[in-house]
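Worked problem 6 (solution included).
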Amino acid sequence: MTIKYLAGNTITGLAADTKPTTALIQPGARFLETDTNQEYFWSGSEWLAKATDTPWTYTVYKAGTTVKAKNNTTGAIDYSGDATVDCSPTIQSAIHNVANVGSDAGDAEFGAGIFIKKGVYKCTTYIDASAANGVRNGIRLKGECTGGTVLSFEPVSTLLAGLFINQNFSSLSDLTFRGNTNIGNIVYMYTTLANRARNFTINNCHFEGPNAYPFAGNGTGEPSGSQIGLFQDGQLASWIYWWKITNCTFNALGRALVSFGEYGTSIQISNCNFLYCTTAIILIDSGQHTISNCTIQGDSNYGETGISIVTSTAASNQIKNVIADLRKTGRTNCQAVLLGSGTPLNVIQNVYNINENGSTFVTLRDNVGVNTTYNIANPQFYHGLSTDTKPTGTSIIAGSRFLATDTRVEYVYNGSTWSAMA
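Solution. The predicted structure is:
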């Protein structure tokens, strides 16, 4: 780019440009890097970076075929790499070095943030934001905009995960995570006795398989085998809890979200969309979670079960206000919520499932199951066609209503039978 001299001693150019140092440059002149928004001022002998008022320790961005990590305290490009090969080392270095930058230097407990500007960042190796790699608690990874900032994990051989993270008080926001068929888990969160991954926030993020729709304008939506979007590993005797996952989309994955192991607990999932995933789109192997205001969608090829609560340790979960559209061919009753044997005290309310025959009704569990120990707090409202078999059994609360939408006849359940209301 040609250096431009503007009125008022303002000069613009790119970070890669050589800044002018001629005698014509007056002290106080300003140079703006238009690709990084970093400002410099001429002291009379050198260009000095203006201190930036930003909550982000590093800004990661692409300049042509180079990925760069700018130190927002010094203005220097601390790390860079070939963006056409692998962006992970540059991002990894910035994450690892936040403990040594600016006001955060010497603070061994809480770490600052990495801001990643718009662009698709090709990552052929994994990124480790865990304590094992010296990363502190409180690390924050934020994109410039969801869908615009994409971490595209494209390893040429099998990797367990694209991003590893286990720090307390950490967050992911405004990012799209995409994995190819060699990625087992796009984001893998785990616990150790020293780092328990508590108080974690994920907001406004997308988790996508390689065929996510729309993807480059031609995605098929077909999920990629058993690939998992977000895996929470709570198998060690060290509790993972107090997580919030909000306003996220999970698209074209084997499973969208798995909470595995009885030591993962107290996750709040709200206002999320789960699209085109396979059986057990949300798999819960632990208790005290809240899932609310979500949409779960499959199609004729996949999507048998929306939310699966599978073991006796998966107790005291609340699932409310969920719409499931699960229509796998050959399954006359795809399951919005499946409760395993002995899963106690789960509250399930206002869960709507659209099954493949086109009828719509509220459901507690859509096909035959063995569980009789969960608790539903209030009578429920069901609706369907007059030819539909009305639900019965100990899971149906006395006083529940059923509306036959084709005849407009309403029925009430007395605890054993349905009777038409006068």
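Discussion: The longest strand covers residues 56-63.
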